[in-house]
Each structure stands twice: as structure tokens, then as C-alpha cells.
């Protein structure tokens, strides 16, 4: 059973930065794309970013484009989300989610999820 | 732009059938996936590619997609099915993943 463990969340002032990590226990890590999905308190799910297995193709939600950067290190089985210029609207639990098929060139479906890490942007 | 419309809530008695709709607002043919989320937990994939059940999901869960409306149907509803359910698509025109607003299933 694959495990995804997010870390790096916390409280940050508006305009600040955080880097989230998602450590994945999966020997096939380098064959799968990953996504970040967030959920504001009491709200629904919002997709944030996608990164292909080789790290070349990336997609972002309009709400984070230009502020967030997704990356991965296939030698460490880890996916990252660098979040800059945070605003109170970015306050949410951030989930890492593994895509459903190998070598996916775009988001398909989210097969496995981590438990999430909380990010709070507040003064 | 693509908008996924779900009813905020659906209530059903145990043993009955629940149908959760996801309106696709004339967005063209879209493949729909469904997730279940219980309070304080991460979402769980229930149905993918419109009709395929995810691993470990009971046969009571089924998906359908007519083009304008997708639906998740839960037969013989149990108390443990009480959760929020979200539909999700990929919009190739905008290169965005979209979620519906979610439906809270209450088992009476």
C-alpha cells in the first residue's frame, strides 16, 4: 500500500513563503504524476497543481499561477510545492495525491492521497 | 467555462438508494471521477473513468455519465456511507482540474 506523507505546513504572515513536501513510499514513484489539492476550512476540494512523472509538464490552477511552483526529486521519492506571496485565501489543508496511471501526461484521477498538512496565512 | 454542479445535500434511509448528480453545463464530453470524504479524513477515490469502481470499493457504488449529467449511485445505503462526495473532471480546453462543490450524504 503506497503511503504519502505531507509536511512543511504552518502559520505564515501574508506575503510570506512556505515549501511543502510529500514523501512517497512507492518503488514506482518515478513512473507516476502527482497533484496538490487543497481544502479551505469547511469548504470543498480545489485542485492546485500537477507535475508529470519526469517533472517536465506542469499545470496550475489560475488562483496560484505565478505564485506556486511544483517540483519533484525522483531520487528522493518526494514532491514539493513552493508557495510564495501567500494570502489569507491560501489558508487550507494541502493534500498530495498520486495520479491513477503510469506516465500520465495530464491529471487523470487521484488514486492515493496523503493525510494533508495545514497552511495558515494570517497576521 | 466548465462548471460542475452538485446538490449540497442528499438524504436517504438505510437500505435505500442514493443518487448524487453532477451537472456538466454543456461542457462537452467529460470523463468524471468521484471521491468520498469523511470528516477529518483525506478523500478516497470511489469511481473513475465514469463507471469504474476503485479498488476496495463495494459493488453498491456505481457511476454513470449521460454527457450532460454524471451520477454516483449508492445502492443499499449504509450508515457508514455518510460522507461528502465530490465529482471531478479534467478540462482540456483550459488545462484545469475542476471539482464539483460537493454533496453531503446523510443517512437518516
Write the layout of secondary structure elements.
The complex is a heterodimer of chains A (123) and B (108).
Chain A: E1 3-7, E2 10-12, E3 18-25, E4 32-39, E5 45-51, E6 58-60, E7 68-73, E8 78-83, E9 92-102, E10 110-113, E11 117-121
Parallel strand pairs in A: 2-11
Antiparallel strand pairs in A: 1-3, 3-8, 4-5, 4-9, 5-6, 7-8, 9-10, 9-11
Chain B: E1 9-12, E2 18-23, E3 33-37, E4 44-48, E5 52-53, E6 61-65, E7 69-74, E8 83-91, E9 96-99, E10 103-107
Parallel strand pairs in B: 1-10
Antiparallel strand pairs in B: 2-7, 3-4, 3-8, 4-5, 6-7, 8-9, 8-10
Keywords summarizing the entry:
heterodimer, A: 123 residues, mainly beta, 7-stranded mixed β-sheet, 11 strands, 0% helix, B: 108 residues, 3-stranded antiparallel β-sheet, 10 strands
Task: Characterise this structure.
The complex is a heterodimer of chains A (123) and B (108). In chain A, a hairpin with a 6-residue loop joins strand 5 and strand 6 (58-60). In chain A, 42% of the residues are buried. Chain A starts with a strand and ends with a strand. The mean pLDDT of chain A is 97. Chain A is globular. Chain A has no helices and 11 strands. In chain A, 0% of the residues lie in helices and 54% in strands. With 108 residues, chain B is mainly β. In chain B, a hairpin with a 4-residue loop joins strand 8 and strand 9 (96-99). Chain B has strands at residues 9-12, 18-23, 33-37, 44-48, 52-53, 61-65, 69-74, 83-91, 96-99, 103-107. Chain A binds chain B through residues 35, 37, 44-47, 50, 59, 61-62, 95, 100, 106-116, and chain B through 33, 35, 37, 41-45, 48-49, 54, 84, 86, 88, 90, 92, 95-102.
Helix/strand/pairing category of chain B: mainly beta
Q: For the CA atoms, what is the radius of gyration of chain B?
A: 13 Å
Residue share in helices of chain B?
A: under 10%
Content of β-strand of chain A: over 45%
Seen as an oligomer or otherwise, the chain set is heterodimer
* Unreliable stretches covering 5 or more consecutive residues of chain B: none
